[in-house]
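Feature request disguised as a bug report, sorry. It would help if multi-protein outputs had a clear separator. Right now it looks like this:
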Amino acid sequence: MTVSAVEATNFAKSPVVNGTLQVEDAPVVDGVPMIRQNMPTVTITDPLPDDRRAREALYYQRGWWREETFLDDLRRQSRMRPHKPAVAARRLREARTDTLDYVELHRLTDRFAGGLVELGVQPGDFVAVQLPNRWEMVPLLYACIRVGAVICPIGPTTPEDALRHRLTLTEARVLITISEWEEAPLAKSAVKLREELDSLHHVAVIDGRAPEGAIDFRDHFVDRLWEGVHNEELDSRELKPDDPFVVLFTSGTTGESKGVLHSQNTIHSAIRGYVDTFLLDEHLVAAVTTPLVHYSGFAQGVLASVMLGGTIAFQDHRKNEALLDLVQKYGATLLYGPPPTLTDIAQSQRAEPRDVSTLRHVVTGSAQVLQPLVDDLRETLGARTYSLWGMSENGPVTITRLDYNQDWAAHSNGRPIDAMEIRIDKCLNPTERAPVGRLRVRGASQALGYFKRDAEYQEKMLDDQWFDTGDVARDDGRGGIRILCRASDAIKRDGMVVPMAEIESVINRHDKVAEATLVGPSGRVEDPILAVVVPRGDVHPSLEEIREHLREADTDERFLPDRLEVMDELPKTLTGKVRKATLRQLFGEG
């Protein structure tokens, strides 16, 4: 199965005169954005115009979209900074770190692209990559751009049924996986699927012995000098900025996982907003805790770092207390991770202090940030904490800013990056704005759609291209938002939406709680509030202990849990989100 590339269109340099875009031929000069010749002349306005074509013209005018690609970024860095470290990939159990400088990364990209051609990969084909955080993921990402393929990143803990669904939907021609992971025989499972799926022609295996019917990755991709063999063919294949580039599968909290399809430009605009917010440049050394197969890892981590000429450091196993070794060794300037990971890191620094004086930014998302975490990170790491919010459908949309006070991450998810717009609607009436309600977004970072699920994607779109995020948010008073909960999980008290995410974060800090979530047992807004906790140790807290803990954190009495249930572990999606629908099935009231 192939995806048709966006029809090629001539581009010209387009200077701006008196705030208006002038579409005319001009010589190419670095740093000046590109604009399609058949797009309208557009005056810069704020907010952006509703007309889609006018907005897209502005995306090019402002540099959010561009004619260059991420592969062009890599080539530029290999010329400008050939021997600067691009990747530091720590293998914890082998007690070693694999490193690549920019010349090596560029060379391996061409080599891997040649290896894909040898396997029959055609422009528009999907290449599935099921890996933990290993160095091979990085050149494979760029090799897919070079060969004209759409990369489909998949986590190594993905169950076989979910893997089958993703391979079947995309009709991936090649699957690159690892021999085994956490005692799961991934290579053997992949070979079994290859025999079952007509579209899956090859399985390549990294590490260990490749089973019968699979290709040894090192033998085919690493040890054979494919670079230069297919150059002429590859030059005509490379993905263009608006072509389908990557498909990211959603967490599947409300049903079957959907494949979010992005172009390089929709990803670039989000990355551009991210790095501009923090004034990042070639001095960036990013220590990333999230998987490279997820948006935050491959986009805000790999692609952003290479775009700037920085360095990205990561490790393959989840051992949060070891992350500061990477920070110290490579002089990390930015640390990215979810709040629970950052809590572990702060505790580790207290127990075993490392030199983290190079850190400037600690960036977090996926869960609410509370004041104690901001205080802990400032005290232990000497760095300021920033909060962001985003989705697979659009990347980082809102971020707290450098000009805010240092504690604002504990009160807000920030205001939108320049490439995106946000609004809060009344939950049952999208034509009316509200201080608390349904969060909708639109802009240059919005995905192309759901692969083979166009109707589902369009259901989330209003006529003027506002995307329904499915989240309930409130206005933070500074042009930004604070996420309260998923709309499907909302509970109200006296007409007020219970701030589920904030309360969950508070409960998670109870010394008898390892993890906690809130849910309405029947999914109705008038539901009682059920707290489901995983105890830390053998003794679990009582309901009254939880309620008293929340009172001490100044939680509104109306929002205290009415009921408590205890589990050994919470049911979760592949990306670590709690499956609240499963909890409602377990603890529902009739």
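(second protein starts here, but nothing in the output says so)
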Amino acid sequence: MTNSLLEQLPEIVREGRKQAEKILESLEGRHRVSLQTREWVLPSKDTRDSDWITAANRQAHLGDEGSADWTNRLIYGDNLLAMAALLAGDEHTPSLRGKVDLIYIDPPFDSKADYRTKVSLPGVELEQKPTVIEQFAYSDTWSDGTASYLAMITPRLILMRELLSDSGSIFVHLDWHVGHYVKLVMDDVFGSRNFTNEIIWWYYNKMQGNVNCFPRNHDNLLYYRKGPEFTFNPQKEKRDNPVQQIKRIWSKEKGSIVNAKDESGKVIYQESTHRTIDDVWRLSMLQPADRTQNLRFDTQKPESILERVISAVSNEGGLVADFNGGSGTTAAVAERLGRRWVTTDLGKPACMIMRKRLIDQGAKPFLYQAIGDYQVEAAKSSLGRKFRVGDLSGIVLSLYGALPLQPEDNPLRNLGAVVYGGKKTLVLVDSPNKLTGDATLRKAIAQREHLLGGWDRVVVLGWNFEPSIGQSITALSDPRLEVLVIPPDLLDRLRKKGGIEKLRGQVRFSSLQYLTIKPVRRQRSGDEEQLQVTLDNYVLLSPEAINLDEDNRKKLLKVANAEPLALIEYWAVDPDYDGAVFRSVWQDYRGNTANDDDPLRVVTEARFSVPHKTGGRRVCVRVVDVFGFEAEVVQVVAESRP
């Protein structure tokens, strides 16, 4: 007979502590989790961007915590790995252990929720299921119901406590599904003495719901402090109708608050126009007609909640974190209230929405980062901490249908052969520790020509790619070279299916997406020069790799063939790309009407001014399509003649 949830809870918490302790022990190791900066976003949703170039020069490096050089960050990936990276720190960024003043999270709490993403394209609307990585993460969360949910959230809460400053606070936003169980876990992690409030958000829901019970019209926010030292700023709200109240003052003699009295001893009354906010928050839900705030994102919460939380328990300049970023409400409000922020999400659609929201708001420059070596971390989880990259390459070769070469010809264990119809194909599996780029392709071509007497073709299978990979493939123009994408969810699928044999024949290795632009124009005018960058074409990643049903796939192909640039969700330009960090000085995205009046298409041409530069200019253009796939192209533009 299965134990009840209360009987399982002590073991769930013990296992969660063990998982968190392993992560904390690994922070000092050589192979600790790191963050990769994908983009340094300098918001400029129209052509008024020259000030941001100066700002970019001022913020050449990330500085110590609390300095003027702090840069806010949006992180894509599993929040457990993101927190591990933030706790570890790196050579550019100090550890955030004990540095976060406020954590607010709004984790999923409805096991029957369907988080499909609707993608509106010109003339059609697609319905995309969550990516397989998101599906597995979510199914892991609920595989055994509430027990799995608690097993997921426990180690994360422990890492959050490590990130909190001594005077920090945490708010966990839940409802009736799991709130009472999570409180038990939080009592254990943070200490029941540090439980401060259970806040009721009453949201004026006019829907009557189930006629067999009282309508459910509230959520719960569990508020804990880390310790006896804390920040708290009492909040007040305006009364609809002012009232007469007794004036209350502090009495030093009695050491308490007492009624104020005049010289004759009469109690003093005063008009009260505001009330102190208590633990029942009467705040409206987001309204469908609210075009300024409502982003049509499932689970989005109104800014009024975060305004109250952030104002109450943090001060200007404090650091706020949200590890279930969603639509970006926490980051947006923290930015507006003068706080620093870090936010993460596992969903690419969520990260795209957050990036656009912050650009639209005119936020300070921020970093868009991803988990470094995600596949390596997933492999450790699936294959054990002692796994080797060669083990992973062998799995990929087997699933592709290639036989590994002999050890003497294959010291890295990443080469295989496919012989079919009298033709020999060499297969190279690149490492998950690196970005597959031009150097790897040239090495593969050389091995095709010389290894074991030569081969008819070579196929390169990669996990992560340099954004300019499409440009490299075009420049090589080699019909006997093929580059394919290893499914990013492969290790999760191996773990779920139970091994290679059950996956054989079911794994698709997809082609790459790529971008082309027209020749960049560069015209000098005094101390400045104007750049004109024009998109030419965008080829989508193989549609089979996108989680669509057959009907939606046909709709997508129709748009892709007729108007490929309509698939672009966001694009940005770095006028002086250094090959390391992409600094986006100019951006446009669907829904931005500052550059045009078409919410379903980006503009295809960028015109903006930059300070004059002598010699060639390395201009990089990066695009993100509506499914979150990225591509970039680089052009070196000669200096224009006066």
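Even a blank line would do. Unrelated, but nice: The first helix runs from residue 5 to 25.
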